[in-house]
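PROTEIN DESIGN WORKSHEET
SECTION A - STRUCTURE
LENGTH: 62
TOKENS:
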């Protein structure tokens, strides 16, 4: 095997080893997906600044 062929083979082997390590680290480092928190929808657009008493209307504007 000539010197140029040996260098090319070594460079190719190093490339594949580095690529495998990068892929393995990327797969391990990926954070686990968490479910999205539930959304809460309001029947009115008023911002709630005070708690609404039981039976009260949150959209009455007071």
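SECTION B - SEQUENCE
RESIDUE ASSIGNMENT:
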């Amino acid at each position: 095997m000539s010197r140029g062929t040996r260098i090319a083979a070594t460079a190719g082997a190093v490339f594949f080893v580095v690529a495998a390590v990068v892929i393995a680290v990327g797969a391990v480092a990926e954070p686990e997906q968490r479910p999205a928190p539930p959304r809460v929808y309001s029947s009115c657009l008023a911002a709630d600044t005070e708690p609404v008493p039981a039976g009260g209307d949150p959209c009455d504007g007071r």
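SECTION C - NOTES
The chain is about 45% helix and 0% strand.
The radius of gyration is 31 Å.
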